[in-house]
Design goal:
By secondary structure, this protein is of the alpha/beta class. The protein has a domain at 87-277 and 377-667: Glucose Oxidase, domain 3. 26% of the residues lie in helices and 18% in strands. Strand 8 (185-187), helix 7 and strand 9 form a beta-alpha-beta unit. Helix 2 packs parallel to helix 19 and helix 15 packs antiparallel against helix 16 (471-488). It is globular and about 70 Å long. Residues 21-40, 569-588, 671-698 are annotated as: Disordered.
Length: 722
């Protein structure tokens, strides 16, 4: 009845572009300078016998950490990345618009995961793409750069310090997190023509000025975007002229990870690695190397089990393999192993190494080293619903220009256009009637106990069989749940729905709504001790009916945005094509469409939560060290205890910067962490031949394949990644 939309953000009419200089354009895909930066190893025989730090996963966070740690020339660092370098697909990575028109998803650069059958979505299995390339998701995503709101980060800090055992101070309060995000960035202001044509507003003082990742805008845009904020304003949603300094609610044109000097993607490889201007012999990177487990001191004794409340389990190295049939090889570590393998890979590696829920490990044939029940639990994701509309004859979309194959369509400026108009709506903007708003909040609050009980009794695998979920994990779920219902639902600066507009299909505008703080939380778990066997991924989409209510309201607001005579956007739309207007006349109709068509917004998180042990945490908030271990940390989007109203790229860079600062402070006595002296302004930083994992972070973890039948049905994909 309805075709499925896996897309996400699009555009349209008189086109404005800003040209790069000929010298800049000609060097856009210049190969990296092999005389500078790290050692890219072509064989495992070139590895040293040991390294001070081994980083598992060369994605968004992993390369951030590798670059910062190796600034100290006396520190040896190894990055093990399961994917390839990406040199062979440099143009697909570097040209921003290729994220839609020549995507790497569904290729060897994608882990190609699927969720388990989702009972809350008619039993559907959803695709979960994750990048498998140096640079991770930052090499293949939609390049959105959005910051969460202060109230969310401060809520995380409050939860991190609320456990009975919270002895360490949390580095996650807004001021420190904001500073860490700014440390990663350089702001590239748009030209006046681009700014005025698209209606872009910004406060330059809210951005970083000399970090590795460029926060810019496309060099090509469309006047229809200037109607985005006025149209939303007519529905009671104000414009936000400064969405990056602590309150991201309202409408705005978001920043994109684009380097203005040559209109290329700015991502963790180009920013943190390829731009290093001097040789860095203390940093080795080996691609095509899948870590199969952590090697523990005394691990030959299968009877050695350690308490999660201790720090007794010490890693002596890691094992890796070049393929599922290759022999495992061991590399020794002198100081620490840092897991940056993304939300999926980090939890999976912990579990196959013997750290996780005891019953899950035993069922998978893994010797238990630490019974840590929170590993893989409370898995979350943003769920998005897409509506498609045909445009009037006066409108030109980016997709129309691209399919024309004109000279203009292939210019660097045109190929830099990606979707970026967005809006975050607090609950009060969605339910503008006071009684309706209070009814939703009351319904969420009153359903908490039944939700917690169902989660506990469903067990670690969500099937209702086997051990019930540990009380600490359930208590952590309760803490997150009440934070959402009692704090974030009532906050005017916490978005509960994200709205997006996409212009990358011919003669089509796609509008999207994505839930930001799902009360429904699931789990991921291993079924084998073999890391090459994908884990079960169960985000438990829409298990709580309040999530469906909120998403439905967001979708209905989208339709009003497109059809209301008071909306300045409606003049560009001739009709709705998916779902056809006649098929949605009631809330039940909308619910049916949501359940049958919604997809991931590519933001999985929270499988290794940074929370106290008494709240089912996996890593200590004050150090990001795995509970029970002496020298294993996790640094990526998996440590977020809850989803936030943001794309995951910017906050994950923040996690990387804070995390590496904690490590360097411990070993070097440098309280401020590392300085920002690697920026991708140098001529060799545009090589963009990266390969890592995809998604909010996914630094070299696992991945997901796009359903190619959906691609054929839609023509083009437009991803809202990160």
């Amino acid at each position: 009845m309805w075709s499925t939309l896996v897309l996400t953000t699009f555009l349209t009419s008189t086109v404005v572009s800003v040209s790069a200089s000929p010298s800049e354009s000609s060097s856009r895909f210049k190969p990296r300078n092999n005389n500078n930066g790290p050692n890219y190893l072509t064989s495992s025989s070139s590895l040293k016998s040991s390294y001070d730090f081994i980083i598992v996963g060369g994605g968004l966070a992993g390369l951030t950490i590798a670059s910062r740690l190796s600034e100290n020339s006396s520190t040896s660092v190894l990055v093990l990345e399961a994917g390839q370098t990406g040199d062979a697909v440099a143009s697909q990575i570097n040209e921003p618009a290729n994220t839609y028109y020549d995507s790497l998803l569904g290729s060897e650069y994608d882990w190609a995961y699927k969720t388990s059958s989702q009972s809350g979505m008619n039993g559907r299995q959803l695709d979960w793409p994750r990048g498998k390339v140096l640079g991770g998701s930052s090499a293949v995503n939609g390049m959105y750069l959005v910051r969460p709101s202060k109230v969310e980060i401060d809520a995380w800090a409050q939860m991190a310090s609320s456990g009975d055992d919270s002895g360490s101070s949390s580095p996650w309060a807004w001021d420190s997190f904001y500073a860490a995000m700014k440390k990663a960035e350089t702001f590239d202001a748009p030209s006046d023509d681009i700014k005025n044509t698209a209606g872009i507003e910004f406060n330059a003082d809210s951005y970083g000025t000399d970090g590795p990742i460029h926060w810019g805008y496309p060099g090509f845009t469309f006047p229809i975007l200037s109607n985005w904020s006025p149209a939303l304003s007519s529905l009671g949603v104000p414009a936000n002229p400064d969405p990056v300094s602590g309150n991201n609610t309202g409408s705005f044109i978001a920043n994109s990870a684009i380097r203005k000097s040559d209109w290329t993607r700015s991502y963790s490889r180009s920013g943190y690695i390829d731009s290093i201007s001097t040789p860095r012999s203390n940093l080795d990177i080996l691609t095509g190397a899948t870590v199969t487990g952590i090697v523990w001191d005394g691990s030959s004794s299968s009877s050695s089990t350690f308490s999660a409340s201790s720090s007794d389990l010490k890693a002596t190295g890691v094992q890796y393999a070049l393929s599922s049939t290759s022999p495992k090889q061991t590399i020794n570590v002198n100081k620490e192993v840092i897991l940056s393998a993304g939300t999926i890979g980090s939890a999976q590696i912990l579990m196959v190494s013997g750290v996780g829920p005891e019953s899950v490990l035993q069922d998978a044939g893994v010797d238990v080293k630490v019974d840590l029940p929170g590993v893989g639990q409370r898995l979350q994701d943003h769920l998005v619903t897409s509506l498609a509309y045909s445009t009037t004859s006066s409108v030109t979309t980016a997709g129309s220009i691209h399919t024309s194959q004109s000279t203009q369509s292939q210019s660097p400026e045109s190929m830099s256009f990606i979707n970026s108009a967005t809006a975050y709506l607090p609950l009060s903007s969605l339910f503008q009637s006071g009684s309706s708003l209070q009814s939703v909040i009351s319904s969420a609050q009153s359903s908490m106990q039944s939700q917690l009980q169902a989660y506990k009794t469903s067990g670690y695998k969500g099937t209702g069989s086997g051990d019930q979920v540990d009380d600490t994990v359930v208590k952590g779920y309760q803490s997150i749940y009440t934070t959402i219902t009692d704090t974030l639902y009532s906050s005017p600066s916490s978005g509960q729905i994200e709205l997006l507009i996409a212009l990358t299909q011919p003669n089509t505008i796609v509008l999207q709504a994505a839930i930001q703080h799902p009360l429904s939380m699931g789990r991921m778990y291993i079924t084998s001790n073999d890391v090459f066997v994908s884990p079960v991924l169960d985000p438990s989409y829409l298990q709580n009916n309040v999530d469906l209510q909120i998403l439905r309201q967001g979708v209905k607001m989208l339709d009003e945005l497109a059809t209301s005579s008071s909306s300045s956007l409606s003049q560009f739309i001739s009709g709705r094509t998916n779902p056809p207007a006649k098929e949605t006349t009631s809330d039940d109709d909308w619910d049916s469409f949501i359940l049958s068509s919604s997809s991931t917004e590519f933001h999985p998180s929270s499988s290794c939560a940074s929370l106290p042990l008494s709240l089912g945490g996996v890593v200590d908030p004050g150090s990001l060290r795995v509970y029970g271990s002496a020298n294993v940390r996790v640094m990526n989007a998996s440590v977020f205890p809850m989803e936030m109203s943001t794309h995951l790229g910017a906050p994950t860079y923040g996690v990387g910067e804070i995390g590496v600062g904690l490590v360097r402070a411990e070993y070097e006595g440098n309280k401020s962490g590392s300085g920002v002296n690697a920026t991708d302004n140098s001529s060799n930083s545009g090589s963009g031949s990266g390969n890592g994992s995809a998604g909010g972070d996914s630094s070299g973890a696992r991945g997901m394949k796009v359903d190619l039948m959906m691609v054929v049905g839609l023509g083009l994909l437009a991803f809202v990644f990160i």
